[in-house]
Amino acid sequence: MRDRVRGRVPVVVQTRGVRSTPARVLWVCAEAVVTCGVVLMLLVAHQLWWTNQQARAQAGEQVRALEREWAGSPPVTPEAPVVEIQPSAGVESHAPSPSEVPTSSGRPPEAASSSASSAYAIIRIPRIGLTAPIARGVSKRSVLDRGYVGHYPGTAGPGRTGNFALAGHRNTHGEPFRYINRLRAGDTIRIQTREREYTYVVDQVLARTAPRDTGVIQPVPRSLVKPSYGYSDPGAYLTLTTCTPEFSSAYRLVVWARRA
After folding, report:
1. pLDDT in tens, 16-48
2. Fewer Cβ atoms within 10 A, N terminus or C terminus of the chain?
3. Could you give the 3-state DSSP secondary structure of residue 14?
4. Active site residue 107
C-alpha cells in the first residue's frame, strides 16, 4: 500500500496568472470601450477636418476653373429674356424650404447650358474672407457637401429683380457660411458671373427662425415666423441661409442684402 502511495505522481494546479471570469469580462469591456472611443474620434476628425479640407480644395479649384474660363472667352449674351414659368392650374406651387440646406426665377442665362450641379457664379464676402462657387440647387450630395453655395430653385438669378436666395453649410464640408452671423448692415457681398459682377449691401439679419419659414426666400422676402423681419416692396434682394446654432440644424440663420 505504501509502495502504491509512493508511486503516485502529484498533480499541481497552477492558478497564478490566470484571470477569473469577472476580471476577464471587465478586460474585454475595457478594450471595447477604448476601441469605440478611437473609432468615434476618427469619425469626428473626418467630419470636422477631412470633409472641410476636401470640400475647400474642390470648391477652390472650381473657382479657379471659372476664372480661367471667363478670362478666355467673351461674355455670353442671352438670346431671350428669362420668363418666370407660372404653375399649371390646379397645381399648388411653393418655394423650397430652408430646411433643405442642414443650411432660380428663371435660370441664369450664363448657366443655361451647364449641368444642374455645376458652378456658374462666384460669391465673395470680404468681411468674412469668403470666396466660393455657386451652383444651382441645394442638394447636399451634389452641391452643398462639395463646399459650394447652393442657389434655391425657383428664386431670382443674380442681379435680377426678386430674391436671389442661397444656402450653404455652416459646419463641415467646407462650411462656407460658418461666419455669416458676423455680417452687419453695410457689409458688401459680391456676386460674379461670366457677364458681370453684382454688388449687394447687407441690410437685415434674422438670427433665428424655423426650418420651414419659407417666407424668407420668397420674391419679396418676409419671415412667416417673425413678420417684423423682411420687406414689403419688390426689389433686387439677396438671401443667405444656413443652420444655427453651430453643429445643429434646429433653426435657420438668415442674412438679407439689397442690390447696390
Report:
1. 555 568 777 777 777 777 777 666 665 555 456
2. N
3. coil
4. no
